[in-house]
Amino acid sequence: MNVVVAQSGGPTAVINASLLGVYRAARQWPQVDIVFGSLNGIEGILNDRLVNLNEQLDTDEQQTLLRQTPSAALRSCRYKLPAVEKDPAVYETIRATLEKHDIGAFFYIGGNDSMDTVDKLSTYFASVGSPICVMGVPKTIDNDLCLMDHTPGYGSAAKFVATAMWEMIRDCTVYELDSVLIVEIMGRDTGWLTAAAALPRLFGCDAPHLVYLPEVDFSAEQFLEDLREAQKKSRTVIVAVSEGVELEGLDDFQSGKVDTFGHKYLSGIGKCLEELVRDRIGCKVRSVELNILQRCAAHIASETDLEEAEQLGAVAVQAAAVGETGQVSAIVSRGDGYTPLYDIVSVREVANKVKYVPRQWINEAGNDVLPEALNYIQPLIMGEPVVLTENGLARHFIIKE
Amino acid sequence: MNVVVAQSGGPTAVINASLLGVYRAARQWPQVDIVFGSLNGIEGILNDRLVNLNEQLDTDEQQTLLRQTPSAALRSCRYKLPAVEKDPAVYETIRATLEKHDIGAFFYIGGNDSMDTVDKLSTYFASVGSPICVMGVPKTIDNDLCLMDHTPGYGSAAKFVATAMWEMIRDCTVYELDSVLIVEIMGRDTGWLTAAAALPRLFGCDAPHLVYLPEVDFSAEQFLEDLREAQKKSRTVIVAVSEGVELEGLDDFQSGKVDTFGHKYLSGIGKCLEELVRDRIGCKVRSVELNILQRCAAHIASETDLEEAEQLGAVAVQAAAVGETGQVSAIVSRGDGYTPLYDIVSVREVANKVKYVPRQWINEAGNDVLPEALNYIQPLIMGEPVVLTENGLARHFIIKE
To answer: What are the chain A neighbours of B390 within 8 Å (beta carbons)?
Structure first.
């Protein structure tokens, strides 16, 4: 018997650590001969583009390089599986490819949308009496999957955001003049990553002075009032704002395109607030969009996150080995002193649902996060991996077709 | 006798390593009692805001923290010293403060504009028969100071740019669709830092596919033609462009404010090209502005750069100890196998002049850099410093007033 693994959705710094976790655990599974990788997520199964990972991950060095390479080594897709009633042929094609390669289990590493695929496929296989297991392995920098203490990918993204914020605080506080720095951070619907921008507080630092999460309503006038208040205490005011924060009445600044999954592509709240401050307050102002580095900055990955991502790959394989399907591996809670507790949970309870930052972790005024949030995030960014370098840069694993 | 050191201009990741180099060498200078730090550059001397660094850099731990802290621990200024004929009182004030504190030498760590201050002040002190030495210590991520092989700050900025580009290449090549990524990199007049974006070529990588430096004229039509050509070979095309590249006829996109030193604040070429690609080519396109992290990302600093920055501080002090003034420490050339050669050079030959990327390091079409450029940059990004951390973040040195 063989197994296949694929990656989907937006990249993270540790999605390849989960791939490594699946690979290593599958090689320990006595019934398994070949671990296949499907290129471009589920599309690789639809198009029969599988690579034999046994050949490419044979050595310790190859495995180490895979672990330290950001983004998806097997590449990704944004393909949304149609409902089986609408397009049964797609399901038949997937089944045919898997049976052709004697696949007993399919592991899908991805976020919310990929979990929807795991749910649909596992339900389909059960309905047609196929023994193929379908298991999810979570990943998302957004940290918005339900039933989980946190998701792999988040810790590393949070470490990058906190590090960047901590360094930019140093950068922006050197001049004797009134200035505002606005830092726009990823997070369409939830403010988990933006909350990480407040981690410099753990050093007793006042900055960032204002933190806006999409969990709370936002208004331009209240923002200006908050800013003027903050300027009374600090000549440099630093603002962290989630890309998901929407400015009512200023839609022209923000694009409203809709992607395959019905999400809005949000961009520009930082630039938008920059213009607002320039117009209405008139001091020096700059906006910084941390952009895609948030999800791919493996050079500042959290070792904790890498270890957990790898372990979650293994947990999914071990569950499949005892016949589980339609489940996703998860860190369901944390023990005292921070001990991640692993389990599997029903993918249906995870797919298409969103976990928000608790309102009680945000201050009453809705312009800052409370120590509870920082205490939650801090253990997730701990540790620095040892990295193999060449020419002063990290070496990367590149898949061969 | 005492000495004073100050920092000026835009931050870098290693300007504090130079401060440490000045401090350590000055403490070795038998005649020196106190090493003062002037807060906010030359303004701290004008306003008599000096701090006793002996008290704050007493321990190895304090010194280690200073070295790993980005930006200017003594803060900065953008103050431009007027010509002595125009405002002799300013010079008298500076002299009075220095004499009050028994200062025998003033060390100014900064870029082109700070070197102008060193030149004017040293000339003034000589003209009035004052024995106070004024020495420059170079720093600029722009790498544009004349008479130097390279400048400290550049290597770390180049390492960040190359690392970010290398990771973003992984991020952007996972989907099966035509897309363009445009990365805007700092450099008002010169393309040194943008050239570093091409370092992933050392791994045999095709990306970035197009590299535009301000040393070469740029036209929107030629850019679109270059891009269409590149798209024939790669579905994902990655473009590195210097902020200093100007798009003729599209000035409305770019702000034209002028700062104290007569430089244009340039921003927006990346966003401008993004709009152009969306309008004229129509594929998925994204622009990323690396922004201020380029100059403050100490978490990915080059150890080579840190060591050189520290040594340049020491060289300036050692020169002052033998009576030099109006000079700046410099890495004037490199020996075989990359050995930095230190010396001092006349600050007048450095101030207000600009060193450009040689035209012969840029391809004939003006849309890429040649291996000569990569061979020049690569040794400067080598090595990773050991960093003291707490809570998963680097600890920083914060000056006490």
So the answer is: 202-203
Q: Which residues of A touch B297 (CB under 8 A)?
A: 164, 167
Q: Are residues B141 and B205 in the same domain?
A: no
In angstroms, the CA A238 to CA A245 distance is 17
Provide φ and ψ at A349, rounded to 5°.
-75, -10
* A377 located within any domain: no
SS3 B284: strand
CA dist A56 → A21, A36, A51 (Å): 15, 10, 9
Q: What is the distance in angstroms between the Cα of B126 and the nearest Cα belonging to chain A?
A: 30
Q: How far is CA A280 from the centre of its chain?
A: 36
Whether B369 is in a domain gets the answer no
pLDDT tens, position by position, A342-388: 999 999 999 889 999 999 999 999 999 999 999 999 999 999 999 99
Q: Looking at the structure, tell me whether residues B65 and B207 fall in a common domain.
A: no
**Would the pTM of this model clear 0.80, i.e. be above it?**
yes
Helix (H) or strand (E) holding B184: strand B179-185
- With contact defined as beta carbons under 8 Å apart, do B198 and B240 qualify? yes
Does residue A242 share a domain with residue A112?
Answer: no
Does residue A374 form part of some domain? no
HSE (side-chain half, CA atoms, 13 Å) at B170: 33
CB distance B199–A40 less than 8 Å?
no
Q: How many structural domains comprise chain B?
A: 2
The catalytic residues of A are 142
Instruction: Look up the CATH number of the domain holding residue B176.
Output: 3.40.50.460
Q: What is the pLDDT of residues A146-177, one digit of tens each?
A: 999 999 999 999 999 999 999 999 999 999 89
Read off the CATH number of the domain in which B349 is found. 3.40.50.450
A390 CB neighbours in chain B (<8 A) are: 202-203
Q: Nearest CA to CA, how far is A56 from chain B (Å)?
A: 18
The answer to the question of residue B307 being in a domain is yes
Contact A271, B255 (CB under 8 A): no
- Last residue of some domain: B226, B261, B295? B295
Residue B2 burial (CB count, 10 A): 19
Domain of residue B227 covers: 155-295
